Amino acid sequence: MKEIILIRHGKPLSAHNNKLSAGEFTNWVRQYNQSPLDSAHYPNEKREFAAHHIIASPLKRAQLSANYYMGEPAVDVIPELKEMDIPYYRLPLRLKAWHWVLLNRLMWICGKAGRFESFVEAKNRVGKAAKELEKKAEQHAQIVVFGHGMSNRYIRILLAKRGWEITEKNNGYWGVTRLIKN
């Protein structure tokens, strides 16, 4: 039996939900991508994955999460695991940060272009990450992957289409999704 554990990174310190203009939201995204973890929001319990091969996204929050959770850095870093971009469009609005994320991602999914990876490009990249994880699972029967919310969702969907069984699913910060294949 092969097992892939997807763990979403911990909550970034900068993940506040203040009202922002479009320009302020652009800065919020930059800060979110460079933020350390919020020490007040570590997981209530750490599960035992010591026998698992550790893989992480190259983004800081995933690297820090792997190191904290496992007590050591990731053995492998897969660039395609990085989060699907949080797009930002110039709109004459003031919204809470997470409302900006939802609105901008909706526009992005509908095909609105910007200075970032398109939704189609992001899905293709995440598809490559899913294939790479399957290859890693051939080499290491148990792997644990520290990644991101939206990327983990698409990886989970793609792996399920390839015959992996989802036995556990949690998309929150520090959330664990478990997939197995015989």
Question: If you had to describe this structure to a student in words, what would you say it looks like?
Answer:
The protein has a single domain (2-181), classed as 3-Layer(aba) Sandwich (Rossmann fold). With 182 residues, the protein is α/β, with parallel strands linked by helices. Strands 4-3-6-1-8-7 form a 6-stranded mixed beta sheet. It has a two-stranded antiparallel sheet with strand order 2-5. Helix content is 39%, strand content 19%. The longest helix is centred in the C-terminal third of the chain and has 21 residues, at 119-139. It is globular. It holds the Pfam family His_Phos_1. This is Phosphoglycerate mutase.
Q: Which residues sit in consecutive blocks of at least 5 with pLDDT less than 50?
A: none
Mean pLDDT: 95
Largest sheet data: 6 strands, mixed
CATH architecture: 3-Layer(aba) Sandwich
CATH top level? Alpha Beta
Strand order of the largest sheet: 4-3-6-1-8-7
Q: In which range does the helix fraction lie?
A: 25-40%
Terminal CA distance reads 4 Å
What would the CATH topology be?
Answer: Rossmann fold
- Give the helix tally: 5
Question: What's the domain count?
Answer: 1
Roughly how many Å is the radius of gyration?
A: 16 Å
- Amount of beta strand: 15-25%
Could you state the order of secondary-structure elements as H and E?
EEHEHEEHHEHEE
Number of strands: 8
CATH superfamily membership, which one?
A: Phosphoglycerate mutase-like
Which class do the helix and strand fractions yield?
alpha/beta
What is the general shape? Answer: globular
